[in-house]
Specification:
heterodimer, A: 236 residues, alpha/beta, Rossmann fold, 2 domains, 6-stranded mixed beta sheet, 4-stranded antiparallel beta sheet, 10 helices, 39% helix, B: 328 residues, mainly alpha, two-stranded antiparallel sheet, 74% helix
Chain lengths: 236, 328
């Protein structure tokens, strides 16, 4: 059984349907990419998983447990955390406090301390800036902090929404190599990206979302080679 | 810096210079007024904090907050009635009564304010911004109505149980009650600062205020942090109500309307949503009221205070401190 599973999910913003029968499976240890253009429903998918919105029909299952209507704080406790689109840091709090907020659902002090060390090892830059106010960090540092903060929840599934958006190419490389590293350390990753090329290189499998519908799925390599994907998302 | 900013600084600067001139030419009167302003300011600061914390977390001007403050004073005077207190002097029983009544009233007000949030604001969490504003005004009238029916339209006596010692220092008169008000105010504001900055729940409240969705993604239960905000705001307002009663010995059911608006002005002056701003704003507005009372005339004081409110809203809506860090 898959670790995280969406089954026929329909979701609405008011009367506008954002997701139509979305079915996604994420197996333990995988990196799964969700690609698609602006407004395709990628962020909505993540918001639905995190419980910030609830589907009108369909189910979300995590680790064998139905979390379709579970509240967001409980979903974090169960082991799904998210680095949201636009980073959404707490701009007037320090780097350290942002990281501590990431560990809000936990009470194991030693575990939090060792995960903090792990985050600083992945992002040495954050350690240098640990007392700085988050709103004053550069874009790349903010992205690192958003990912580090999500890792502090010690998630089984880490969801990253557009982690490379707005970053210089060299920083994008760094971010994607860190995604690989996080995955290699045992965390399952769900990666939402407009940068389909990079995302599919990192991902074991991918899903293509178009106007709220999954139109294609396959291994990262298959999708990279697929003509439709190349035309629509890779600019070839 | 823009033109309105210069206007703001020039106005503040002029006021400070005029006051400094008074301080030099008539120091005794100046410091006498200063002490009075400080005590009023301490009370306004306690109430302003509740306005600013609630605004910071759910962007609601909680118009019922001034009435929570008054209700604190009403419940305080009622509870003090159960003790064999002696007015006009200070006895051991007075001290015990104070030590018991203070936290009890604060907790009761905290409980009441949580209920208010649950009943009048939470159901409207996702409604247009105007809806909870209207229920806030309704809640304000409701609380005033309760106090009206409970103790009637006339002023209500609040027991005078503080020590009556007072001193003249260089011609300036001050009493134990002045020191009491300022010290209690300072201690409560310091405790709040520690709570907000050091504890997990305090940090979660700040996180919720800065980005509610992101806070939820961290696993923060925002219903809990919002309830905690109302609880703490009411602890401070309840304390403010008792202090007001102990200082002036007279309360009435509409007290919260006027002093609530003045405390709200203090919160706006400091930068609505900004916690240190509300504390500073409270002191500044208290001092302004006292100086206006004695240098301009007390009939002008409300004009001055609400003139400041309008001026800040028009020319510097972020207030004195505003948001100190740019948001990217």
């Amino acid at each position: 059984m898959a670790l995280l599973e969406l089954e026929g999910v329909d979701a609405f913003y008011g009367r506008i349907q954002a997701l139509r029968g979305v079915t996604i499976k994420v197996e333990r240890g995988e990196v799964v990419a969700l690609i698609g253009s602006n407004g395709a429903g990628k962020t909505t998918t993540l918001r639905t998983i995190s419980g910030l919105m609830h589907p009108n029909s369909g189910t979300v299952t995590f680790d064998g447990q139905d979390i379709t209507r579970t509240r967001p704080s409980r979903i974090v406790e169960l082991g799904i955390s998210q680095s949201p689109e636009g980073r959404r840091l707490f701009p007037r709090m320090s780097v350290l406090d942002n990281l501590f907020m990431g560990a809000y659902s936990r009470n194991d002090k030693p575990g939090i301390t060792s995960d903090m060390a792990r985050v600083f090892q992945l992002f040495p830059r954050l350690q240098e800036r640990r007392t700085q106010i988050a709103g004053t960090l550069s874009g790349g540092e903010q992205q690192m902090l958003a990912m580090g903060r999500a890792l502090m929840a010690k998630p089984k599934v880490l969801m990253l929404d557009e982690p490379s958006l707005g970053l210089a190419p060299i920083l994008q490389e760094t971010i994607f190599s860190i995604v690989r590293e996080i995955n290699a350390q045992g965390t399952t990753v769900m990666l939402v990206e407009q940068n389909a090329n990079k995302a599919l290189e990192v991902a074991n499998r991918g899903y293509v979302l178009e106007s709220g519908v999954i139109v294609q799925t396959g291994s990262g390599r298959e999708l990279l080679a697929s003509e439709e994907v190349q035309k629509a998302y890779l600019g070839m | 810096m823009s033109l309105p900013d210069y206007g703001f600084y020039i106005l503040c600067g002029t006021a400070v210079i005029l006051l400094a001139a008074q301080a030099v030419t008539h120091p005794t009167q100046f410091f006498q007024v200063f002490i009075f302003g400080l005590t009023q300011g301490a009370i306004y600061a306690l109430v302003a904090l509740g306005y600013t914390m609630v605004y910071g977390i759910i962007e609601l001007i909680n118009f019922a907050h001034g009435d929570v403050f008054t209700l604190g004073a009403y419940i305080g005077t009622t509870l003090l009635g159960f003790f064999a207190i002696t007015e006009g002097t200070f006895t051991a029983i007075n001290l015990i009564a104070l030590i018991i009544v203070f936290p009890v009233v604060m907790l009761i007000m905290g409980g009441i304010n949580i209920t208010i949030e649950r009943v009048a604001y939470r159901p409207l969490r996702n409604a247009p911004r105007l809806a909870p504003l209207i229920t806030a005004i309704g809640m304000s009238f409701f609380l005033e109505g309760v106090m009206f029916l409970w103790r009637g339209p006339a002023t209500v006596h609040f027991p005078d149980i503080l020590p009556t010692q007072s001193w003249y220092v260089a011609g300036v008169f001050f009493g134990v009650r002045d020191i009491f008000v300022v010290v209690v105010g300072a201690v409560l504001v310091s405790l709040l600062a520690v709570f907000i900055n050091q504890t997990k729940l305090g940090k979660a409240m700040r996180a919720t205020a800065q980005d509610r969705d992101a806070a939820q993604l961290m696993g923060i239960d925002i219903n809990r942090t919002i309830a905690a905000t109302f609880f703490i705001g009411a602890l401070l307002a309840g304390a403010g109500g008792i202090i007001w009663g102990l200082y002036y010995n007279t309360i009435y059911y509409q007290l919260g309307f006027r002093s609530g608006l003045i405390a709200f002005t203090a919160a706006v002056f400091g930068g609505i949503g900004n916690i240190p701003g509300a504390a500073i704003g409270g002191l500044v507005i208290g001092l302004t009221a006292a100086f206006s009372d004695s240098y301009i005339g007390s009939k002008w004081t409300q004009v001055v205070i609400f003139g400041i409110l309008i001026g800040v809203l028009v020319f510097r809506p972020t207030g004195l401190l505003g948001m100190r860090v740019p948001e990217k």
